[in-house]
Amino acid sequence: MDETNEYDFVVIGSGVGLSVLNTALNMDLKCALVENDKIGGTCLTRGCIPSKVLVYPADMIREAQHASEVGIQFQVNDVDWELISRRMWSQINESEEMRKGLSQVSNLDLYFGRGEFTGDYRMRVVDNDEQQLGEFRGNKFLIASGARSLIPPIEGIQEIDYTTSETFFGKKFPMEPWNSLIIIGGGIIAAEFAHIFSAVGTDVTIIEMLPRLVSTEEPEVSEILEKNFRKFMTVMLNKKAIKATSKKGKKTIIFQDTETEEEDEVTADEILIAAGRKSNADLLKVEKAGIELDERGWIKTNKYLETNKENIWCIGDANNGKYQFRHKGNYEGSLVQANIFGPQDQKRSADYSATPWAIFTYPQIGHVGMTEQEALDNGHQIFVAKKHYSSVAKGFAMGLSEDDVENGLVKLIVDKSYRILGANIIGPHAAILIQPFVYLMNSGYVCNLPEEQPPDAVPKMERACPDAGSFIPIYDSMIIHPSLNEVTGWAIGNLQPVNIKREHHHHH
């Protein structure tokens, strides 16, 4: 491409940025798309979608094992890894169809390589060998460049042919499940991989330097997950991987206890590193465009998703590194679309107070809003409610009992005005059970709006009705009996004050 090429709109990354790009293309703007991997971004090609194709068979295996609790004996005779793999690749390979479609758009130039800023609103694209593929100028940029696996400073790790979530959904995908696997990390990605491979028969060892698994969750949720994991795999907490070696096709991690500093080691067929995510801003050389980063290297934005540089926006995982979920990126995409192409006096601001997510382990985890500790740290006066699955009829019918490690839990965080601050669930169908709380936390914010402004141009709390975001609609509703909805709905009856004086009397 001619280095004098100039574009109205440039998108870096083909994940959440595609919907915004589509708007620009429909406006007949001259556009460029820069992508250093497959079209579709992390979610489609190496993340949430292909991983769930692997999670569901693992879920079915665990359900079959749990069936003995209700008097049914299932035998898992075979795991058809080839069929499971084929179904997974069919989703990833949709990327090719997307690429073909984009290549036929007349007002779009595709650059397949790594984009690097060379100055204000200027960029070049290079291949893996640093050979330049093109150079151009853009009037407006949207950075949706995602993130990549963080590799901890482990001695010798670069000499080991380890696996990450990126290479797993690529050249490192196993033809058969590994016989043994070491997973470094205990967060969301690590937990899902541990579930998948332990269920299909792999001997899994988790090495996590923190004192608990999935540390974004409530301590009670982490504890239930840990107890379940320990039935099927080895879980090593407060252990830091310090050295990696390889010998005769086997890989060894030497780890150190974070409290006693005692060392030990574990050996397996493969090492999967899932110890967190890292910004791609360094690869983009954003400093040459004058774009500000935070102390961890993530791109800083304001509430309108604008960087400090005019006409440069950032969304998705690249944006401050917070809430790295596709649905959060999609939400930001819809906001930034209005902010880039809509009236500038009606810009829409981002609100993350009701950001939900699910962790597709066994048991499943659902989460929205604050944990109890986060609510206290933010100065809220709160009630907390807890209810176990086994306490409702449907939970008992599913074979869950009070002393069962699989017994699920609902934990609600509510402020003194009954506004829901957070909900946390672990157990069957947690991802479904959490969603009504997301709707409630976003409901009732439509009062007394200035007519000339769209609803989300006004800060959430400034447009709140008296019952905005409260649990009152659940309290006033009938709940299907017997169903698992009762474990979430009836949890409200267990509200206990945490830092609220007892003049409030509850007779739910």
**Largest beta sheet, briefly?**
7 strands, mixed
Estimate the global geometry from the Cα principal axes: globular
Return Rg in Å. Answer: 24 Å
The total of beta strands comes to 22
Global structural class: alpha/beta
CATH homologous superfamily caption of the largest domain: FAD/NAD(P)-binding domain
How many individual helices?
Answer: 15
In total, the number of domains comes to 3
Provide the CATH topology of the largest domain.
FAD/NAD(P)-binding domain
Strand content: 15-25%
In the CATH scheme, the class of the largest domain would be: Alpha Beta
- CATH architecture descriptor of the largest domain: 3-Layer(bba) Sandwich
Name the average pLDDT. Answer: 93
Instruction: Point out poorly predicted stretches.
Output: none
Q: Roughly how much helix do the residues carry, as a percent range?
A: 25-40%
Intertermini distance: 69 Å
Task: Describe, in plain words, how this protein is organized in 3D.
The N and C termini lie far apart (69 Å). With 508 residues, this protein is of the alpha/beta class. Helix 8 links the parallel strand 9 and strand 10. It has 15 helices and 22 strands. Strands 1, 2, 3, 4, 5, 6 and 16 form a 7-stranded mixed sheet that branches. The protein has a 6-stranded antiparallel sheet with strand order 17-18-21-20-19-22, sandwiched between helices. Strands 10-9-8-14 form a 4-stranded parallel sheet, covered by helices on one side. It has 3 domains: 5-47 and 88-148 and 278-346, FAD/NAD(P)-binding domain (3-Layer(bba) Sandwich), CATH 3.50.50.60; 157-275, FAD/NAD(P)-binding domain; 356-497, FAD/NAD-linked reductase, C-terminal dimerisation domain (Enolase-like, domain 1), CATH 3.30.390.30. It has helices spanning 17-26, 41-46, 48-66, 81-92, 94-103, 165-168, 188-199, 219-232, 281-284, 326-341, 372-377, 393-397, 430-441, 472-475, 485-489; strands at residues 5-12, 31-35, 108-112, 114-119, 122-126, 132-143, 147-149, 180-184, 203-207, 234-236, 239-247, 250-257, 263-268, 270-273, 277-279, 312-314, 356-359, 365-369, 382-388, 409-415, 420-426, 496-497.
